[in-house]
Structure formats: C-alpha cells, structure tokens
Amino acid sequence: MFGFLAVILGPLMRLVYAVIPNFALTLIVFTVLVRIVSLPLNIKQQKDMAKNSVFMPMMQEIQEKYKNNQQKQQEELMRLQQEYGFNPMSGCLPMIIDMVVLFGVIEVVYRPVQYILRIPAETVRAACEQLSIGTQVNSMQTELIKAIHLGAAQPAALTAEQFAAIKNFNTSFFGLDMCDIAGLRISVLMIFPLLAAVTMFLSMWLTQKLSGTAGQLKGPMKYTMWAMNAFFIYYCFSAPVGFSVYYATSNLCMVLRSVITYKVYSPEKYKAQYEAELAAKKAAARSKKKVQVEEGGKAVVKEVSSREMDRLRLERARQLEAEKYAGERTRPLTEEERAAQAAAQKPRKKS
Q1: Residue 269's pLDDT band (boundaries 50, 70, 90)?
Q2: What's the CA angle centered on 257, arms 251 and 259, to 5 degrees?
Q3: What distance in Å separates the CA atoms of residue 156 and residue 39, rounded to the nearest whole number?
Q4: In terms of DSSP H, where are the helices of 212-266?
C-alpha cells in the first residue's frame, strides 16, 4: 500500500541502470541523486528545527504545567503558536517524503523484474509457476532472478528477450547477490543490514547534534523517531540486501548533508536570531501604551500592555456588535413567549 511511488522510482532506476549496469551501484547513484534533489527541503527543515528549538522549552513548560488538563494544555500551546508565529510540525515534510521514498524503494527491491526490467507481474507469476518457484508476493521476483542466474531453462511464459534481460540483470556486488535476504542468521550478508543500522544511529545522532536539537526531543516524539528507524532496520534484515545498500547510502548522505549545511548554515546563528526575535516580541507584549477607555460613563486615559489592548479591542468589538443587533432575537422563543405571541396575533371578536 505504501509502495505506490515504485511506479515512478522504478523507471528512474531503469534509466540509471542503463548507464551503470549494476543493481547495487544503481541503488547507490539513485540515492545520491535523490538526496541532492531534496537538499533545499532538508535545509528548510534544519531552519525550522533551529527555530523550534527556541520554542521547545516553552512548549515543554506548558505541557508540564497543564499535564492534568489536556484541554487547557492544547489551548495554551495553540495560543503560543499563534502569538509567536511558529509551527512545531513545519519540519516534518522532509521526513514524510523520506519515508514514502523508502517504501517505494522497498517495493522496487522486492520486484525489480517488474519495475526495472518492465516485465508484467502476470508474466513473472506464470514463469515462476512453470519453474516451480514459490509465488509469494515479496520473494517470487528475486527468486526468479536467482533461478535464471543459476541456469534454469527458459520458461514458456517469457519471451527470449525477457529471459535474456533477467539473465543479464547484474545483481552482484563484491561477489554477493543483492537479491538474497540476510535474515537473522550469521553470514557475510549481515554486513549490509548492520552497516545500515550503524549509519542510521550515526545519522540521527549527528543530525540532532548539529541542528541544536540534541536532548530536546522528549515523550512520544522521541520514541516515534526511534520506532520509525527501528522499523526500517527490521526491513534491512527481512528484505533483499539491496535495500540495506540503499538505506546505508541514504544515511551516509544525510551525515554528509548535516556537516555541509552546518558549515554553510549555522543553526547556532539562526537560533540566536530567533531568540532575539522572541525577546523583542515579549518586550513588545510587556510594553505599555496609553489608550482612552470609558469607565463609569467617563473617558479616562490608561496605560495598558499589548495583551490588555487586545482584550479591550475584543470587548469593544463585542459591545458594538451587541448594539448593532440589539433589536434582533439571538435565542429561540420559550413556550410561554410563543403562547403570548400567538395570543397577540389572534384576531379579536367584535362585540
């Protein structure tokens, strides 16, 4: 369900494979290209993270203060966002895109015959049945590739051109087959998922450290980040190792991106800028202004803060609205009022 992006990623990988006829190298080059294209989004994400790191302590203070009153907590968090103009979810888009791309790559790695070699899934299934290969959705295409590489005869379901395309599909990388699954058994293949796990931890640690958010993620947000990455590490052990090559390369690109953006775009610099803006807004909110208000039927001049000014404006707007619609009914009639109104409208009998 989440691998819908495979219909786009597969043809793109096919183009890369036409230039570099090696499945593992295709995954590596494709990953680098995706990271380059997504760099502007990643830079924006780092800016948003730097900005949110200024407001994170304020959010945590509200969450702790109103931990037993969820409604009040949400109201105060909403007021904080509206008052200072920030969105704690603004940095989530690049992560969502990364996740969708990951699922798309998993789909392509499971079904390279369909998405890269462009052989219909029905044809693949028929060929697997003729070669007595299991037709499990997640393994039959990689099993077909391995069987043909090991010398299986051409099944009737495949044309000579399709058979040759599968036979010549290069899935070897340092003598290992990218269609194999590492599993949890001790083997040379475990190098790839372990490398993916190590680079994932390195990427998360370095990204948080260089973005200035280390130690600030708490509660559900922190556990969600770890759970999501642990989920993809599980895939590295249960999917063909080609996915581990992609995931490890993606993590290394993120490490390199974090270092480069830290040099070009310093989170500390922008964090200081946001802190200065926040201090200025707080000072403006505390500053006093002289306004004329009505008290006891007399006009008096008072000094009020910006927040008090907003309250007075709201009260005045409500007062004007009440005066404007004073003659209009704003509530339904009661039973007694309906009866009185009906009696008043009933025509009187002539004496």
Answers
A1: confident
A2: 110
A3: 47
A4: 219-238, 241-264
